[in-house]
Design a protein that fits this description.
Layout: E1 2-10, E2 16-22, E3 25-30, E4 36-41, E5 47-50, E6 52-57, H1 70-73, E7 79-85, H2 93-100, E8 106-112, H3 132-141, E9 146-153, H4 155-158, H5 164-175, E10 181-185, H6 192-198, E11 204-206, H7 225-233, E12 236-237, H8 248-256, H9 270-274, H10 281-291, H11 295-301, H12 304-309, E13 326-339, E14 345-359, E15 362-365, H13 367-371
Parallel strand pairs: 1-4, 6-7, 7-8, 8-9, 9-10, 10-11, 11-12
Antiparallel strand pairs: 1-2, 2-3, 5-13, 13-14, 14-15
């Protein structure tokens, strides 16, 4: 007896299978024989993937700058796992952890290398805020919750410190078991070439398609040599859309040259969720369909790739024994005008619409799914 069976779920390669879950895990795939406490008939009409992972959000409710409720950006929009990217440092990570235990969404954290976190925009302008001992102790207190560290390397954050906070971040990384490191790029100084040269295999550049002068493309529209070398070393590119960090022009040029994102993330919080231009991870994913990526490519960016980058070994794939996290969605042929962070628009013809999610084997209808009365809810 299974807990839940999804009958005739359509995968992104258009094969149709049953998916059974038990004890919060994926228990069987294929033609499932048996009964369950709950069954959902998808009739091959709806797509199912491993649960969507948003690897760059801000959901510490007590942050004075960037805050939201985890479930508002997570399970209510079909996203089963979110990673808060540096809202909290060592000083407030304990409180953040306690708050996340109340969420249906699975929440993890990238610890800000500044112990004060995002209580102000310039958290790395005072090197005294980068306390190695405080970071080490926080990581040891929350080894299953803190999945990496975050350094925001733009001029408004680092002030006169230039590249020094990133040098310190790399030291912290090495001293804490080579934790994944996500680096925010924006206005210089420091220059992007300085940043890229310090990064090593597995490090993540977020806001990779921002339209600011300190971007991955040269004025001539070519990929910067430093970024090309970093990618060759195994550095990963993350979208991190956000309010001010995504340009259709940069993304289209880069992708046309084969510079695809390894992960697609939203950098969502309450304001850009409600007022745009982000709205949801599904909306950001849909923008990349309009730029020319395929549905399987886009889904990989929020499942297998995101799990790989942040070492979430039990997530990101449909495989027996892994976490019972699934996203049920539709691919709609629907003309839509998308907007980037530069207020530029792009006409799209397809929308990825999350209708439900399964988290640890439990079914949740999204807001859109409830509105459409999908699955007879």
């Amino acid at each position: 007896m299974f807990d839940l069976i999804l009958r005739q779920a359509r995968l992104v390669d258009d094969t149709v299978i049953d998916i059974a879950l038990k004890g919060g895990k994926i228990a069987a795939l294929g033609e499932v024989i048996g009964d369950a406490h709950e069954e959902r008939q998808l009739n091959g009409e709806f797509y199912v993937s491993a649960g969507w992972i948003d690897s760059h959000v801000h959901c510490y409710q007590k942050s004075p700058i960037y805050h939201d409720e985890p479930d508002s950006i997570g399970i209510h929009t079909g996203v089963t796992t979110v990673i808060d990217a540096g809202s909290t440092g060592a000083d407030d990570i304990d409180e953040f952890y306690a708050l996340t235990r109340k969420a249906a969404t699975d929440v993890y954290a990238l610890l800000n290398i500044s112990r004060v976190g995002l209580i102000a925009q310039n958290e790395l302008s005072d090197m005294a805020n980068i306390d190695k001992v405080a970071v080490r102790d926080a990581v040891q207190r929350h080894p299953g919750f803190i999945v990496g560290i975050k350094a925001r390397m733009s001029s408004s954050v680092v002030g006169a410190n230039g590249i020094k906070p990133l040098e310190r971040a790399k030291e912290i990384q090495r001293e804490n078991g080579d934790l994944p490191l996500m680096v925010h790029i924006g206005n210089n100084p420091p220059d992007l070439d300085e940043i890229a040269d310090l990064l090593t295999s597995g490090d993540i550049i977020t806001h990779c398609y921002n339209g600011k002068p300190n971007r991955i493309l040269t004025p001539a529209g070519e990929l910067r040599a430093s970024i090309s070398k970093a990618i060759a070393r195994g550095v990963r590119l993350d979208v991190g859309h956000g309010t001010a960090s995504f340009s259709f022009e940069v993304a289209k040029i880069a992708i046309s040259k084969g510079i695809l994102p390894h992960t697609i993330s939203s950098d969502i919080y309450c304001r850009n969720r409600i007022n745009g231009p982000v709205h949801s991870l599904g909306m950001v994913m849909s923008k990349f369909l309009s730029i020319g990526m395929s549905v399987p490519q886009v889904i990989d960016c929020v499942t297998a790739h995101a799990a790989e980058d942040l070492r979430l070994a039990n997530k990101g794939r449909l495989s027996v024994g892994l976490d019972g996290d699934l996203t049920i969605f539709a691919l709609r042929r629907q003309p839509t005008v998308f907007t980037d962070s530069e207020s530029q628009t792009l006409q799209g013809e397809q929308l990825l619409v999350a209708l439900a999610a399964v988290r640890a084997g439990k079914w949740f209808a999204t807001e859109q799914g409830k509105e459409e009365h999908a699955f007879h809810l």
